[in-house]
Amino acid sequence: MRVNGWTIWITGLPGSGKSIVARTLKQRLSNEGIRSQIISSDQLRRILTPDPVYSEDERDMVYQTLTYIVEVLIRNGVNVIIDATGNKRKYRDDCRGKVKHFFEVYLRCPLDTCVERESSRKETYMAPKHIYVKAHESERNTVPGMGDPYEAPKTPEVLVDSNMLSPEEISKIIVEYVQKSKL
Questions:
Q1: Distance from the first to the final alpha carbon of the chain
Q2: Is 96 a member of any domain?
Q3: Does residue 101 sit in helix, strand or coil?
Q4: Per-residue b/e over 98-129, b at no fewer than 16 CB within 10 Å?
Q5: Which of 38, 128, 159, 180 measures 20 to 30 Å from 46, CA to CA?
Q6: Is residue 1, in this structure, part of any structural domain at all?
Q7: The whole model's pTM is what?
Q8: 146 within a domain of the structure (yes/no)
Q9: Strand 158-161 relative to strand 101-108: parallel, antiparallel, unpaired?
Q10: 7-24: per-residue pLDDT in tens?
Q11: What are 22-37's pLDDT values in tens digits?
Q12: What's the domain count of the chain?
């Protein structure tokens, strides 16, 4: 992984472990002397839409902006880890089409495990709190996997069951895959 300018998009349902895997991956890469930047849709959303409604138009704007930022970073030799649900394939496919070295990592995780994790986690990494509880109470019908569909990747470069592996094990799998890609 000597060439700069690749992107790893970590996708999955809310609560599947995207944020912790992104941070664990960044640390693993750093330990190997590889610099990277995490772009989080939750952090970006706080700037773009401080009072989000999670409409389709709003999501389109957030993911178009995310992809633009990734393109700029890539052009400047920055390796990017995207921490974002990207509930529609079109968001991830758009980024893939604009970035030469793109790797999609799908953290497959049963919805009940995601709900349990989301309700008990202490660190939210800027994600909204209690989204599944609100979805159950019909306060928010736009939660991917519940009120809004989550379109799983058809052919991700890396597919792991995040309820079966630790973030460290997942980050190791990701790094091994990217290294085999001979960038």
A1: 5
A2: yes
A3: strand
A4: ebebbbbbbbbbeeebbbebbeeeeeeeebbe
A5: 159
A6: no
A7: 0.91
A8: yes
A9: parallel
A10: 999 999 999 999 999 999
A11: 999 999 999 999 999 9
A12: 1
